[in-house]
Amino acid sequence: MAQPLQTGNNGSVDNIVKKNTDHQDGETSQPPNLQPDAKEKKELHSTHSFEWCWSSKSPASITCNKAQTVEDLLKGSSEFRRIAEKNKTKELVIVRDGKAISSHFPCSLIKNERLILKYIKAANKPKQPCSGSVHPCRKRPAGELVMFHVLTTGGKDVVKIMRNPALRATVQEITIYAYQGEKVKQALKRDARFLKTIFNKNCALSHTSTEVNTEMSNLVDDLDGKTYKIILLNRSNPTESQSSSLDDNYIIQSESQRSESDENQDPSQQSATIEALNDNTSEKKPKLNQSIFREIPDSKQMRIHLSSEFKHLMKGMKSEVPKFSRNQNLLHVEYGKSAETCRKVKTMKRLMELSSSVCQVRFYGDPVGSGFLLVDKFVLTNAHVVKKFYNETTKQLDGRVTAHFFYEDLQLVGGEVEVEEVVGFEYGPDASGHQYDWVLLKLSADKKLPDGLLPETGFCPQGGAVCIIGHPDGGVKKIDPCLIVPSHDRNNVVERHYYENQGHVQLITELFFERVSESVKRHTQDLTYESCFYFGSSGSPVFDKHCKVVAMHSGGYSYPGLTGTKHSVIEYGHPLSRIIEHILVQMVERGRADVLKAYIDCPYPHHDIMMTNLKKLVESRNITAFRNALNSSVVKNDQSLKMFFDFFSQKEEFVPMDIDT
């Protein structure tokens, strides 16, 4: 009778089979039925599709409903496998929206797009092809992913940054994916397309538009959708937190564990080693040196003395009265019940419908502000949003500007509409001294646009709740319900912020708050409120409780808090009705019949009141362009335009116009 098989290590037979059949190169000859089913380990997600094409071939569609890499998904196509086999000595480049993504890019980020496949000369001798992806997708919610872009050419003294020089000749930018909460260095190392140089030197990411630097030790959370260039900060060695952080154990082997051959190792195989190492080191924790605390000799008398001095100091601070105001009762301000900010479900549903007309304005893909479709294909936003790249002499934009209406989720891409031209611009005080800050942008007509908000125009209320919809901090579309600060309460809000910042170390001067107080008193026509919409939200529409657009969110008075975070004393919006008046005046002076026609052909409830106010403005400033327009052939041949300008030549009392639309 045969003796039972002895394992010698108290392990299972399966372990013995695996141990005896593994090769030195890491590949296994274990029978198929003992191999783990990779498909069973893949996390399910919502079904999505995208197209891919190679060379001049017709595009092919592919669908996925499981978490995997783009390359893994493509390997399910027999046509892709044929192409890959034909180019097995070359390196695969996957181009998405003109930028190269990595082969281990999560497929869940590609939706309703077309990928272009290219093959370039490999940097190193290619390794033996693997049967599966060496970058298994991390099972984390797709909402935690962020994407940012990096130029393939670095800055001065660090120009060559790509492992494969042929990649730099193929594309100008590459797209990096990362997980919220991890550092820039971790994301770049996982990508595996960069040279080791950028990690050994004191490099950082420099924003291509603002030139603001982001160091390698920073988190990636705020990088989504932005484009950067890798630059050399200085020639000193990287700081300890940047070069040898414990976080690196999450991504790569330490230098003592890495062999000399890793430098020339293929990026994909090196990443496989990285993933394996993560499993082995994830449970290791650094040991902290234990400290022994001892009492300082003869310290009791010192402690009593310091305690007495502290009490004396606190008593003196309480007796001091700030110079800003002697009326301490102003600290207590009643703004109304917080329930005023609550909205009926019906109201919120209506606001959600109107929010589709709100967009994010971007310059070369980077968010610069918010805006909304006013009428037809004309978007309204603040002039200061585009001022840096708008030439007021030539009336031309100095770069590519786009509007994005559907950026409501980090995973949503596309849906951008190109800006054709600037049709109106005003930045600064007018003849009466009131500040104006608006720009009207004309979009290209090749895409279907949402409805404009001109029919929903209203007038600024004196109090109550409002809602702002926009893209604060350059992020996704958000809504902020807040309360109006009436003109008689503005100074109280300023004083409240002043007293809240009276710390032992005074960061904000009394003069700052005095100037804010004077400013809000002068701008009587602006709508003021306390909102959390700060940078990136300029140009957002402000809705009243009846879902009418009453103002355009334009700015606030910001200051740094004790923790370094940004705060704002009070925020304001310019009344939309006054902006429309100035738009119409400028369109008449510039002879923009297309904008005037779009306005006339879009009736709304307050049209008659708006026309009356506009006529008063024209007469008070003696704007002759309205009378001269009647002699234009364009006006003579268009009945609606003729009726529009005839109204301004009437001397009698206003009679509501009947315009056929």
TrEMBL record:
Residue spans of biased composition, Basic and acidic residues class: 16-26
A biological-process GO annotation = DNA replication
Query: Where is the sequence biased in composition, kind Polar residues?
Result: 1-13
Q: Which SUPFAM superfamilies match?
A: Trypsin-like serine proteases (SSF50494)
List the InterPro entries hit by this protein, alphabetically. Answer: Peptidase_S1_PA (IPR009003), Peptidase_S1_PA_chymotrypsin (IPR043504)
Q: What is this protein called?
A: Protein FAM111A-like
Q: Name one GO cellular component term.
A: chromatin
Q: Region (Disordered): which ranges?
A: 1-42, 254-289
Matching Pfam families, A to Z? Trypsin_2
